[in-house]
Design goal:
By secondary structure, this protein is α+β, with helices and mostly antiparallel strands. 42% of the residues lie in helices and 15% in strands. It contains 17 helices and 17 strands. It has helices at residues 14-22, 58-69, 110-128, 155-167, 171-177, 190-210, 227-232, 253-261, 282-287, 300-307, 330-344, 347-357, 362-375, 386-404, 419-427, 431-440, 450-453, and strands at residues 33-43, 72-76, 79-84, 91-94, 100-103, 133-136, 180-185, 216-217, 220-221, 240-241, 267-270, 273-276, 311-312, 314-316, 320-326, 380-381, 384-385. The strands form 5 sheets. Strands 1, 2, 3, 4, 5, 6, 7, 14 and 15 form a 9-stranded antiparallel beta sheet that branches. Strands 8-9 form a two-stranded antiparallel ribbon. The two termini are 22 Å apart. InterPro entries: GCL_bact_plant, GCS2, Gln_synth/guanido_kin_cat_dom, Glut_cys_lig_pln_type. GO terms for molecular function: ligase activity. Its EC number is 6.3.2.2. It catalyses: L-cysteine + L-glutamate + ATP = gamma-L-glutamyl-L-cysteine + ADP + phosphate + H(+). Homodimer or monomer when oxidized or reduced, respectively.
Length: 456
């Protein structure tokens, strides 16, 4: 999230929180695609991580991008921590360990979001190369320890950094060493939101397997194909997971609000100050009885910011965020929106996808969630492997994209963006497994070649 929301409207009741989410409903012709991806900067000369300050640091990278793009800087104290395109709606932000994130503008087609991605990578390379900086196209930094990883100067991350060890053993790894690709998609009504949320949650482990690309930690294999995904299992169980309640009768905006209200807060922002209230209840802030800020009452900014600190596999805001995939090469970054748009933006394909997953129990879904990071496409559910399910689901997604009929200037529709996933599902072998073959073969037990072979 590049910028914290600024809306001082007071919250009168729980109904206001529900209405905030409900305001995300849009007619189909207004549905858009927002793709986000994180990449890990490193110095090409010695493969070291890039700190914030310094002549060749992340700050200089941001300042160079501002000069190139003319985007508005996002400041904290005297530190630029991101950039915002006030015209198009895109943004650049920093994750806790310096991961450089593009939050794409809301666009109409996968063609457009892929063009945006390629333009961004060309722009960031123009600034980064003279600084001797490259970017890893992986789901986790493969070489550096936590202690070697830089820390970005963002107050909210300081609060999270202190709190994470209290609620899980891997939260700091999530913050400082992982990178993802996400797509944000719209819904037309509460019922449409629920159906899309259920399908997306059930199939998120499939996305984890298809995009698995983080098999190395601290210079050696870590035992997983998607260590990034595994890390989320022991980050903070209060705010992560597969949301089993979403599949129960009565699911809707109100039910999500009730869950979100019970997730402990991180902070309350007033003016430019982040007040550390980690572990406190949003219900207490609503009632004006938050111990750390007595008498202070919740605003819509507080609610929007609180929603941004929830990390389930699919997150509901005024749109749905798909959160199960590792970052990767450019073809995979374009495949992420194509996969989910094909499944969720065509009603018949959404129903077909629901038919694939509707018989799975909560226990089945959780077991698959836990198995996919280690086993990838070999993980099974209801007697079927994820490779088999992946081929079926990709066929559904292809139908959905073809039916959309969104053509580029060459007359091609959006289905060609699925090609990398077709290969992975067809062969039953992930990018992570390809990396491990190289590690044990031509790379001779070193992860260093990944900095040239899997870099932008």
């Amino acid at each position: 999230m590049a910028r914290d929301v600024s809306d001082t409207t007071p919250i009168g009741s729980r109904d206001d929180l529900v209405a905030y989410l409900e305001a995300g409903c849009k007619p189909k012709d207004a549905w858009r695609i927002g793709t986000e991806h994180e990449k890990i900067p490193f110095y090409t000369a010695d493969l070291a991580p890039v700190p914030y300050e310094g002549e060749r640091g992340v700050r200089r990278l941001l300042e160079g991008m501002q000069g190139l793009l003319g985007w508005e800087p996002i400041m904290e104290d005297d530190h630029p921590i991101g950039l915002y395109d006030v015209t198009g709606g895109g943004a650049i932000s920093l994750e806790p360990g310096g991961q450089f994130e593009l939050s794409g503008a809301p666009l109409e087609t996968v063609h457009q979001t892929c063009c945006e991605l390629h333009a961004h990578l060309a722009q960031v390379k123009e600034i980064a190369r003279p600084l001797g900086i490259g970017f890893l196209a992986l789901g986790m930094s493969p070489k550096w320890t936590r202690e070697e990883t830089p820390v970005m100067p963002k107050s909210r991350y300081g609060i999270m950094r202190r709190y994470m060890p209290e609620v899980g053993s891997l939260g700091l790894d999530m913050m400082f060493r992982t990178a993802t690709v996400q797509v944000n998609l719209d819904f037309g009504s509460e019922a449409d939101m629920v159906k899309k949320l259920r399908v997306a949650l059930a199939l998120q482990p499939l996305a984890t397997a298809l995009f698995a690309n983080s098999p190395f930690t601290a210079g050696r294999p870590n035992g997983f194909l998607s260590m990034r995904s595994h890390i989320w299992l022991d980050t903070d169980r209060d705010r992560t997971g597969m949301l089993p309640f979403a599949f129960e009768d009565g699911m809707g905006f109100e039910r999500y609000v009730d869950w979100a209200l019970d997730v402990p807060m991180y902070f309350v922002k007033r003016d430019d100050t982040y007040h550390d209230v980690a572990g406190a209840s949003f219900r207490d802030l609503l009632a004006g009885r938050l111990p750390q800020l007595p008498g202070e009452r919740a605003t819509m900014s507080d609610w929007a910011n609180h929603l941004s600190t929830l990390f389930p596999e699919v997150r509901l805001k005024r749109f749905l965020e798909m959160r199960g995939s590792d970052g990767g090469p450019t073809g995979m970054l374009c495949a992420e929106p194509a996969f989910w748009v094909g499944l969720l933006y065509d009603e018949d394909c959404l129903t077909a996808a629901w038919d694939v997953v509707k018989g799975w129990s909560a226990a089945d879904r959780q077991a698959l969630r836990e198995a996919a990071p280690r086993l990838g496409l070999a993980a099974t559910i209801a007697g079927r492997s994820l490779a088999e399910i992946g081929r079926e689901v990709l066929a559904i997604a292809r139908t959905g994209l073809a039916r959309r009929g969104r053509l580029n200037a060459d007359g091609r529709d959006e289905t060609h963006f699925l090609a990398p996933l077709d290969r992975i599902a067809g062969e039953g072998r992930t990018l992570a497994e390809d990396l491990l073959v190289r590690y044990h073969g031509p790379w001779q037990g070193s992860v260093d070649p990944v900095f040239s072979e899997y870099a932008y």
